[in-house]
Amino acid sequence: MSARPTLLMLVPPHWAGFWMPWLGAAPLDVVVHGRDAYRAQDVDYALSFRPEPGLLKTLPNLKTVFSLGAGVDGFFADPEFPKAVPLVRFIDPQLSTEMAQYVVMHVLVQHRLAREFAVAQSESRWAQRVLPRKTADTRIGILGLGEIGTVAGERLRDLGFAVSGWSQTRKSVRGVESYAGDGEFASFLSVSDYLICLLPLTAKTRGILNADTFAKLPEGAYVINVARGGHVVESDLVAAIDSGHLSGATLDVFQTEPLPKESPFWLHPKVIVTPHIAAISDPKLAAAFVIDGIARAERGERHPNTVEIERGY
Ligand code: NAP
Hints:
Helix content is about 30%, strand content about 15%. By secondary structure, it is α/β, with parallel strands linked by helices. Helix 1 packs across helix 9 and helix 3 (about 95-110) packs across helix 5. The longest helix is centred in the first third of the chain and has 19 residues, at about 95-110. The site of NADP nicotinamide-adenine-dinucleotide phosphate has 31 residues, from helix 5 and strand 7.
């Protein structure tokens, strides 16, 4: 029997190739589900993003599960997820920076009327010179002032926008107004000309971007969802845009991915669609994170990124 811990990769087998250059050198036995033979009782650690339901509970000696992504809803989608096993999620400054880049880019595309000018250029038309709304008067609301929401809020604040954030608990981020809890949700929405969703997907946040929420936003508000498709009631979003109440949306995530051909979002002139690429975990950094996490677990330490199972994120 090997003294080296065994790490099971529960990912599409072709992903394993991205990781092996970084994991292969570590003092671990790495096995890939669906590619390698292994015995369930030998598995000490697992890494995944959306494990096959029921599989983790068949591993009797599992010490820690690592999430490849910041979001852990894929694990809770497994009704038999072994809740006694610590679940540790990947938090990384580079990932937060790239998420913030995406958010800033899409705020600026809308704020600086980039799509209108692109259409005008495609028609060889010198567009009427319309001034964008003043930046300091443009209010941005970030749903979820956590690891990523905080970085996005700071970047937008530094560009001169008036930024607020909504979270469960009160935050203190310089130049960012903090709204906390359900009791302050409506006030937060009323000052959000841009509503940016960076919440985790939990029982409480599923469907939070719905007709009631949109109705509480200022006329002409713009929605950016970079969290999870399950946050949006998609038919409500289309209706709010088509009614003119919302000016449009940028969507990176969807109820069904890949986005079905028949989705109204594809051809909607006021919607920007991207294929869940706001940020992608870097295998080199994520492998180093997992190797370090295993070393901590072997020393009996509780990892600081351990998910609070009851809270759901
Ligand atoms: P995080 O650090 O856990 O932050 C979550 C924030 O949401 C926290 O501020 C939390 O409040 C708040 N929150 C949670 N439930 C709430 C509720 N019911 N009411 C009010 N506030 C609530 O998460 P993160 O690392 O920033 O990641 C956010 C999400 O981004 C992930 O869950 C994932 O879905 C998504 N993501 C997407 C991509 C992509 O490529 N599209 C990539 C990475 C991540 P407290 O701080 O008070 O607890």
